[in-house]
Structures are given as C-alpha cells and as structure tokens.
Amino acid sequence: MSRELLRKGVHALSLILLPISFSYATLIPWLMLTLCVAYWGLEAMSRQQRIPSWLQSFLEHCKRPGTEQNIDPGPYYLAAGIGLSFLFLPLAAAQVGLIHISLADATASLAGHYLPAQERIPYASNKSVVGSSTYFVTAFLGSLFFLNWWQAFIVAVVGTVIESLPMKDMDNLTVPLGIAFFITLMGWV
C-alpha cells in the first residue's frame, strides 16, 4: 500500500466522528486531545524503539515523506482543527467542516497524487487542478447533507480555495475551522 493512500485513509477515518457527533458532540474535542496525547506517546516510544516493529513501520508510513525523523505536525493540526470547530462553533457547521477535511481533502490529495500529468494551480505548485476539482465535487456533495444546494455550492468554493492555499499541513487546521466559521458567519446553521 502506498504511503499517500495510507495517510489519506487515516485522514478519511476521521469521518467516524460524524455519527458520534450527533449524540456526543461535546466529547469530540476531548477525544481529539486524547488522540494527540496518544500519538505523541507513540512517537516518543517509537524514537526509543519501544514499540513493535509493525507499529513503528505503520507510524513511519503514515507520515508525509521527509518527516520520518521528526514529529509530523499534520495529525496535531487535524485534531486541533476538528476539536476546536466542535468546541467553539455550531454543531452543523463543525460537521460540514469535518466532511470537508475527512472526505474532500483526502479525495483531492489522492486524485492529485494518482492521476497523471495535470496542470498545477499557479499560486500553489504542489496542488493540481484535478485535485482541487475533486475537492470541490466531494465537498459540494458532502455539504448537501447539511445545507441547501446553493449554500453547499458556495461552501464548496470557499473550501476549495482554503484547501488550495500553499500552506503545508496547515489545511488540516484551516479547512475544518474555516468552513465551520464561514457557515456560522453566513448564519446558515
């Protein structure tokens, strides 16, 4: 299994929080904090080679290339983005942000990684037009569960712009918070 597929599979796994959020939304920030502490502990134990080799290999394969020897900030940003949106913003807005970061971001990354030779976005050379288009379609369809079609369209455009900004790993933080904040600001929930 490729590293990118594994990384984005873990990303998409955060969608499991959606059904949990309908009944236990107040627990999600605490769950994200717990996962951060657990990940930090695994990282520390991995550096001291105190975990099984299969788990160490899994952790290394979940990291972005080039960060194998460092603590990868991506999972912390992801947990912070999800946790803070559920802590401070309305539930439905946070749920849409969760869909954007777990599904739309993952599909955009996989499309950009696996589809051959595409045009790049001029202001973000590491982002492709195909990946951003995939983000838009996935975000639009996912947003329809909570918003009407024109609101979902606008939110998908906003999410696509936020995700396409050239900020390595920061989209894990800015996408869920930005989407939830925008929906709240517009008064759509």
Proportion of residues in extended strands = under 5%
**Overall spatial form:** globular
**Major sheet characteristics:** 2 strands, antiparallel
Portion of residues within helices:
over 70%
Radius of gyration (CA) equals: 17 Å
- Identify low-pLDDT runs: none
Structural class: mainly alpha
Total domain modules: 1
Say how many strands there are. 2
Element pattern in H and E: HHHHHHEEHHH
- Quick check: average pLDDT? 89
Straight-line N-to-C gap: 40 Å
Sheet with most strands: strand arrangement = 1-2
Number of helices: 9
Would you give an account of this structure?
- The chain is built from nine helices and two strands; from the N terminus they run ααααααββααα.
- α6 (about 90-115) packs across α9 (about 170-185).
- It is globular, with a radius of gyration of 17 Å.
- A hairpin with a 2-residue loop joins β1 and β2.
- The model has no long low-confidence stretch (mean pLDDT about 90).
- By secondary structure, the chain is mainly alpha-helical.
- It has a two-stranded antiparallel ribbon with strand order 1-2.
- It has one domain (about 5-185).
- It has helices at about 5-15, 15-25, 30-45, 55-60, 75-90, 90-115, 130-145, 150-165, 170-185, and strands at about 120, 125-130.
- About 35% of the residues are buried.
